[in-house]
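Fig. S4 source data, part A: sequence.
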Amino acid sequence: MNKSNRSHWAIWLLSINAAILMLFNGCATQKEHSFNGDFGQNMTSDPKYFIYDEDSEHFRIEVHQGTPSTGADRILDLKKAATTIAEAECQRLEWKKWQSDFIQERNQGWMHIVILEVKKKEYTEPNFPKTGSNP
């Protein structure tokens, strides 16, 4: 077997191994979580969520309905779920201060969707004056 054939076989084997690895690991989509399950709630809209773009300074949370429902409850449920998730995630990341903004809200058929962006804010320890007097 000459050198050219060996390199073709090596490339072919690497390609097959990479394909198998991708199949076993799945695609790069985020894992969908259940708000009711993760936070012990019983919201009728059964919010489902994803957390995206987590890094040291920001992340986004997408929350959508898990079951069809109508009315203002579904919107309020999703926004409450998003802010609760954001607070829990910021505590997990040990952020002392953050800012969150709803950057998108839409309907997709019966499903309402909200996206909350959360950014870390700089936190400085308060410098309180010392209390009490020293005579």
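Fig. S4 source data, part B ends here. The chain is about 35% helix and 25% strand.
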